[in-house]
Q: What sequence folds into this?
């Protein structure tokens, strides 16, 4: 029996591996696509997030429709999802990468979060408790006994989000310009938290349990349904 009270965690492993695998595919592709394109053909780009800027001829002399199928698909993904600003991106083989450095960090975190969940995560009925399941039960015992797991869930989320938010908004509101290193290291925890959250959201399934009290939680805590009021 698994530590959540179910016979197997096969579904949890699959969810984590899917999220980690898809994220790692894109992460690796961000490096492979410019390496596979003809050298020195993708220069200093500058686009807009959530818009297609390079799907046809433009004043920047680049369109991903001229690339090989694989590179074109990855650059199209980056074109739609990233601002593609040259000063915030790395170059490989003389070609600017399809996404900025922060997005590289986010996808690295997403892959890491998925793979961590595939090794540690278990379905514990709610998204919150499923998310926290990646932490050792020994460390969670006092948190659950004192019913502070919502506070811990929010705190972990804040730790993952706030560094990137501060780095990004200070650039937006002031003349400050971040560095590639800061963009990378603030993107990774954001992606990590997002990957764990996605995994928990897809794995948390109450219908896998016969009743709430079947869920095994740290600290010998149990879910209980509130008593129904008599009509």
A:
């Amino acid at each position: 029996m698994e530590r959540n009270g179910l016979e197997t965690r096969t579904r949890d492993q699959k969810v984590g591996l899917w999220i980690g695998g898809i994220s790692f595919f894109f992460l690796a592709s961000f490096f492979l696509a410019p390496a596979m394109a003809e050298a020195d053909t993708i220069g200093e780009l500058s686009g807009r997030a959530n818009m297609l800027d390079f799907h046809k001829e433009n004043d920047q002399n680049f369109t991903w429709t001229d690339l090989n199928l694989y590179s074109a698909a990855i650059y199209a993904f980056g074109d739609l999802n990233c601002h593609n600003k040259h000063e915030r991106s790395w170059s490989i083989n003389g070609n600017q990468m399809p996404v900025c450095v922060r997005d590289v960090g986010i996808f690295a975190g997403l892959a890491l979060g998925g793979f961590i969940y595939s090794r540690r995560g278990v379905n514990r009925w709610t998204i919150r408790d499923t998310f926290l399941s990646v932490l050792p039960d020994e460390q969670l015992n006092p948190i659950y006994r004192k019913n502070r797991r919502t506070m811990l869930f929010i705190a972990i989320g804040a730790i993952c989000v706030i560094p990137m938010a501060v780095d990004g908004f200070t650039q937006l509101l002031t003349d400050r310009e971040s560095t590639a290193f800061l963009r990378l290291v603030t993107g990774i925890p954001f992606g990590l938290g997002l990957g764990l959250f996605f995994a928990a959201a897809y794995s948390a399934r109450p219908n896998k349990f016969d009743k709430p009290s079947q869920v095994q939680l740290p600290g010998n805590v149990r879910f209980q349904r509130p008593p129904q009021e008599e009509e």
